[in-house]
Each structure stands twice: as C-alpha cells, then as structure tokens.
Description:
Layout: H1 4-9, E1 17-21, H2 24-27, H3 40-44, H4 63-77, E2 81-85, H5 88-91, H6 101-116, E3 120-126, H7 132-135, H8 145-160, E4 166-171, H9 173-181, H10 193-217, E5 222-228, E6 232-234, H11 239-260, H12 267-273, H13 281-285, E7 294-298, E8 303-307, E9 315-317, H14 335-348, E10 353-357, E11 365-367, E12 372-374, H15 376-394, E13 399-405, E14 424-427, E15 432-435, H16 437-452
Amino acid sequence: MTSELEEIASSYPAGFVWGAATAAYQIEGAWDADGKGLGIWDEFCLKPGGIERGETGDVACDHYHRWREDVQLMADLGLSGYRFSVSWPRVIPTGTGSLNPSGLDFYDRLVDALLEHGIRPLVTLYHWDLPQALQERGGWTSPDSPEWFAAYADEVVRRLGDRVADWVTVNEPEVVAFAGHSAGVHAPGLKDWRLALRAAHLLLLGHGLAAAVIRSATPHARVGIALNLSPCVPATTSPEDIAGARRADGHLNRWFLDPLHGRGYPADMVELYGELMPEGAVAELATWAGGLDFLGVNYYFRRFVRASDAGPLKFQAVKPDLASFTEMGWEVYPDGLHEILARVHADYGPPALLITENGAAYEDSYDPRDGRIEDVLRRDYLVAHLRSAAAAIRAGIPLLAYFVWSLMDNFEWSYGYSKRFGLYHVDYGTQRRTLKASGDWYRSLIETHSALQPARR
C-alpha cells in the first residue's frame, strides 16, 4: 500500500523546489548591530498598544549571529530552496546614500553558505522593513519612493546577483499599503485611505523599477513579486453578498494582479474608490505591465464575505460555520490553494507560479519523555495543502516551488511572539531550536520525493 508520503511526493515533478521562508525583521534581531539603521518596525514596536505584550524584534531569533546554525538546520531538513529577505536599513541605514558594508557582508556570507549546502536562495528585497529615515520623508507615499527602492535594489543585486538568480521585489504590497496605511495595524501605523491607495500605486511602480534594475545587473535573473491572494466567497447567495465578494476580490486580488499583467487598474474598483484615488494613477498604469518571470502566491485562507455599509469597500469578512481555524483565527481551507492557483493561471497566465508562503500558527505540545514537540494540526495542515497544490500540478498549472511559512518560530508582527508558525520551535530565552513533528514530516517528504526520482546518469 502506498504511504501518505509516497502518495504526495509522487505528485511533484523532478526538480521541484522544496523550501522554507523567513523575513529579516522577524528573525534577525541585532536591531542596531554593525551600523544598521532604524526601520519602521523598530519605531512602530515602541508605540503604546501597537504590539501584543509590548514585544519587539530587537533580538527575535538572533539569526544575525546564529545564521551558520540556521543554515545547517535547513540542510538537515533537506531543503532545496530558502526564501529570505534583505533588511533595507541594514544595507543602507538612512535608506539612500552611504552603504553599510557590514550589512551587505552578512547577506554575502549567508548566500555563500546556502549554496555550499545546495540550497537555492530566493531573495526578497522588501519584506516590510523600510528605513525610518525614509518614512520621515513620506515613506511609500512619497513620489520619490520607487526611485529609492530601485537604487537600493541595484546595490543588493550588484553584490549578490552573481550567485542569486531568483528575486522577489515586494512581499504582499496589499498588506504594506492597507494594513500599514489605512487600518494602521502594521508599520507605519497610519489610517488614511488616500495614503493607502497612493502607497499601493507607488509600490507597484517600485516593483517595476526594481525589476528593470535586477535584469540590467543580472541579465539571466528571474524576477517576481509575492502577493497574498485568496478566493473571495459570498457568505450567502444574496445579490448584496455576491457583490460584496466581488469588491473583496477587487481589493485583495485584482487590484494588483490586473496591472501586473498589463490590464491597468480594474474599472469597477477605480469607480468604487472614486476621489480617494491618486491623481493620474489610472493613466500611469494603463499601458504598464509588471514583467513577471514568475508570480509568488502567499496563501493562508479564503475570504468569506458579507455586504455591509462599513468603509469604502462596503463588505466585512465573517467566519463560516462548521469550519476549523488556526491560532490566528484563519479558516483552514486547503481547497482554496488549488482554487487560487487555478484562477490565476486561467485568468492571467503568468509564466510560472511559486507558493512563496503557506503555513499555520498552532500551539505546540512538548512531550518531556522524549523531548519531541508534537504539532499534529500543523502537520495535517501541510498534508492537506500539499495535496491541494499537487492537484494544481496535475491540472497543468506551472507550479515550481513550495516554501513553508516558516522555517522557525519568529516575531509575528503585531502579534509579537504569541503565534508560532515554525517547523523549528524557538525557545526565545535560550535561542534553542528544536525540530517539531511537522518539520520531521516535511523532511521525510523531501527525502521521499528525492528517492522517487530516477537516478541521474
């Protein structure tokens, strides 16, 4: 009888990239070490009431000092890919101008160590840690921000591009723009829809300029962007809820997918936003396209939507009945991964798709008898979502990689250290890393997939 591992592993092609992902502010710590400048999360974490229990990323997982150990942990899992981000304020402390050689040296050593272990780096240039000095000049709402980003990208790519082929420009521009500028729950903590829409627009322009810089410096590079995407489902069959789900889809998915694939901003959402729209934004992207070599998809849950009178979008997300949820309160809906991959493939046809984030926060159970950390729910989550992704591959969708979120427990933004997503448990007091049962299962899956491949001659 075919085992679960063999069943799943056999569904993935040879050369499929098995990875894990992290982000600089969430794991590096060393907030002021070796010339690093302040970032907007350094500042945001100090605001009263901003972060659960008043925690910060000052130390986090101390990856800045423990990176050799962490690369070995990746090798022990058998990873063939690792997605990490570069800290802009670590590389250029004030955002523009003088470089910090120590910052670039850190990423230089990290890339070399990954390659020595046969692990392919996927580098994200912006995973939410804008230099505070640039925020004081308007941040992502400044018309100069795309040029700032392109200049920073140029420095990083010229240093690492001889060894790094795969690049993500921006991680989840929807979160950067709206969680950070209209909801105020992420840095920089603003609550202004006009600023949020301006930031979303300038993030897209920044992606375009950075992509051009990467290709100029490294002609054979592969460039993409990582979007948080979700199926948006009406809570009932009422016309109002169906229209609300359409607006949710327009806000979360189409607002970025359409312009990145040469369609400009979706007309229904432009009409809905009305005078909140940045002047000239529609015309500026009317003939623009993102020039993607791949699209990164971050998938966690679907959006279950009811119409409402709240805010410009006039919908609210609700929880479906008879569903299970992670510790984040997110519905566990594995079919949504196949659904969103199929929708993107059918509607937009990007050359390739990568699952750049997928994972779950659950409480872990420590067994003192053998020191194991049992996390059955996380393992089951991975099993179900990897089956869903496998179904997408069988349907002909060009899915090339899967990156678990996350390699290790870390600083979970406004939730502080209260939510754990990692394959490795982190004891923040001692910084000890311990492989969880889900990580052991993932290691076995990678090993099984490798064993099923025909021997190379």
